[in-house]
Amino acid sequence: MKAARPYKGTRRKLLLAFDVGTTYSGISYSILDPGQLPEIKPVTRFPAQEYISGASKIPTIVYYDNEGAVKAVGAEAVSESAIQSAEEEGWSKAEWFKLHLLPKPHTASNLSQSIPPIPPNKSVVQVLADFLRYLYACASSYIQETHPNGAALWDQVQSQGGVEFVFSHPNGWEGFQRQQMREAAVMAGLVPDANAAQERAMFVSEGEASLHYAVYNGLPLGALQEICAPQCHLHGSVSVNLHARTFLKERLSSSAFLDDLDHIVSCFDKTTKLRFKNPQEPQYIKFGSTRDNDRECGVRIGQMKLAGSEVASFFTPSVQCIVNAVLEQRRTAHRPVSHVILVGGFSGSDYLFEQVSQALHAKSFSVVRPDNHVSKAVSDGAISFYLDHFVRTRVSKFAYGQFCTLRFNPMDPEHRCRMNETFTAYSGERRIRGYFDIILAKNTQVSETKEFKEEYCQKSKSRDFFKRITYSIQCYRGRDPVPRWKDTDPSMYAPLCTIEMDFSHLTLLPHSTLDRNGVQDAYYQVEYAIILSFGLTELKAQVAWMENGEERRSPAKIVYEPDITVG
After folding, report:
1. Cα 492 to the chain's mean position, in Å?
2. pLDDT tens column, 263-286
3. CB contact at 8 A, 378 and 349
4. Under CATH, what is the fold of the domain 13-215?
């Protein structure tokens, strides 16, 4: 798979894309040489999978011993020796840990209650860091072993500024989750510090990465725009396993095989789920030997018999979620929608594809899926996102703004009913608190070049005050299309981030004024503007000021707030 255009950089660079999935993860990479057409390649050899041809994914699993040391990762963690050691030595297993990063509104779902806990004395960022460190080591070994002069190539890119990374993430991830992933990248040793993480680690949603992959597999290339806000639902392949587990736990509740539930669900995941096509035919989960029998539970010679309709019921919530999400996106889209593309490992299920196709065909949609290895669509697509950058317009998921005060208007009924929020400013003017000043409305198409500029003036008697000036951006997640006042829907507002600015480098000249007693007093003043870009894959902020009659700009630091439960 090749990029659409030659690399325009001036020096050789190595680009790695890490797709950390809930159950399986993959790596893609590209060696970028100036003027050459980059080739996108997957890492297809991992420890404990050396003899599996074309294996492009490993299980997203990390085992820790009682001291918190990493004992097994990826394919090594599902080997018989690792499983035996884990049982004998009491290792802790971290799996599905990616789901612990989801914003709080998503983790409030019933499905999320089944997410396995993080091992003792570990944070999700630490587990993620351990896994990223392993992926990085796998990529390093693979590139050095499979490319001509691979060791020299690796040393060269390290000496010329290091590797650059693209991390794909669920559509529902926000700034705080990306901030945590950058922390994990530093902790894992992928980059030396936070500044390097800001420069060399970038992000793309799994949806947008998949779109780039689809372009190379039949999707016509044109002016690609995001025309509706992305959605995120916990109804992927994992949810089928969870519904199967609930069913099997009930079926085996009085059976000796209940102790084998984890193994049986694993066998269902690897075989029965993948082969399932026809709900009219019985299905089987082969998990034991010919000596394993329990007629009451439908177990005979080591395999459990299920009705096809029972297996179909495990898929039903996912099918319904996909169909409903597509219909909702068509309802809110800025342009007509006629095609649906299924990518990712779950789209490899023929039953899922057939059910979604039938339901959406009845709603005048065409449903397609790429012919190639859909399991590596996200990691390959993440590389393409960096190289080709097909999408230039995106849609805001929420309303963004800040709380401010307004001049009190006694003729305005909205003001009169908020008399308890009024106050007298230093100027003697009566003002009212709690107004939400919208910077960017929900479901708005924004181009990457669109800038939102807010102008301010800060005054202080102390020069030190200007070393750290902060600006808070709020996020409204409710249903009101034009939110105006905090008290009308208070639980739907949450802080998104704080923008920090440093003006201590400016030449600050004192201004004079008279205090209340008529005594001359001195203060310092800075007039500046905050420039926000919402049309990129993540929020960018700059600060601007006038110096010698010219506008100067510099990046501003963005600090994201921890997730706050909304609703």
Report:
1. 21
2. 999 999 989 999 999 999 999 999
3. no
4. Nucleotidyltransferase; domain 5 (3.30.420)
